Amino acid sequence: MDIKNLVDEKKIINWRRYIHMYPEVAFTEVETAKYIVNELANYPDLEIHRPSGNAVVAVLKGAKPGKIIGLRADFDALPVNEEADVEFKSKNPGVSHLCGHDCHAAMLLGAVDALYKIKDELAGTVKFIFQHAEELPPGGAKGIVESKILNDVEAFYAAHVFPDDPVGIVKSATGPVSANSDMFAIKIFGKGTHAAMPETGIDPLLIGAQIVQALNFIVSRNVSAFERAVLTVGAFNAGTSFNIIPDTAEIKGTIRTFSADVRDLMEKRMKEVAEGICKANGAVCEIDYKRGYSSTINDEKLHELFCKTIEKTYPDLKIAEMKPMMGGEDFSAYGSIAPTLFAGLCAGPASGEVFMNHHPKFNINEEVLPIGTAIAVAFALELVINPQ
Question: 285-314: per-residue pLDDT in tens?
């Protein structure tokens, strides 16, 4: 069977461009979900479920016995104005698909279309997971998992487009491929006063500056050189006037790690540093620490099968190692049910400057769309018949 012949490139591009033109941010993707459901309605034997939020899960049952596997795509956009010069530019001001989720959704629709054509020959069951709200914790995957609609799935696959390398390269690896992604807010309570009389107050701005500096020593002095961690302060707000020492200051940031032990250590040390500096200066603080997405772990057996599938079916594609990224990805939630495999699809533009995911001028080479769809179809066909 030539899987490439099952893939309808024109349909996939049309789906991608429509979704791209009408983006919706996390947890508001009502119209996008309606569009996906309407498109899925063209395949009469599909079971269509709405398990949580704006998520859509379509179930295709094959005519022969086999495993139950899940293919996942996200479809939320970002709250950023698009600057890319494309004919299908976002029609929703201030919102755009700058991470490639429009591509993911279109490729998954393409996989539905392709596998539906051979449903009478298909072994096992494929659950197509159109997931909302990947970009904003707690994320859409959490609710889908909690709905228990995927409890019988035996393996999950997802892929993400990245424009850092040209089309024709596919990336995968074993072990962690995304980071534990946590966030924190530290509110410092001092004592406001006139800027000319600092001795009569407790300066939360100055205390905050000490905290920001001290936080940046945690990784270099508390985390082993053989581990990986990132702590970044992204916001520091205090005061409104040149001649007033404010009452409060607020620091916001993120912590990225891979191991559970380092994750615990970073949270502990961040709190100790902030509270210690505040106490030493006569201030107090409130710390709001939120654990976001856990690290996505690629299963070794799935990785090996994925590479063999590509080598067997698409020998012209290059397989490269996917380096762990410090970005968060809520595909990790599905790992609580079954082994997962998260791959990277290189989608660099044919010419011109490359703008990475989340940049206002982000764009991809649409030649990746039929390739990504065909890979998903080929891997699904391998998964439903291969034991873990």
Answer: 999 999 999 999 999 999 999 999 999 988
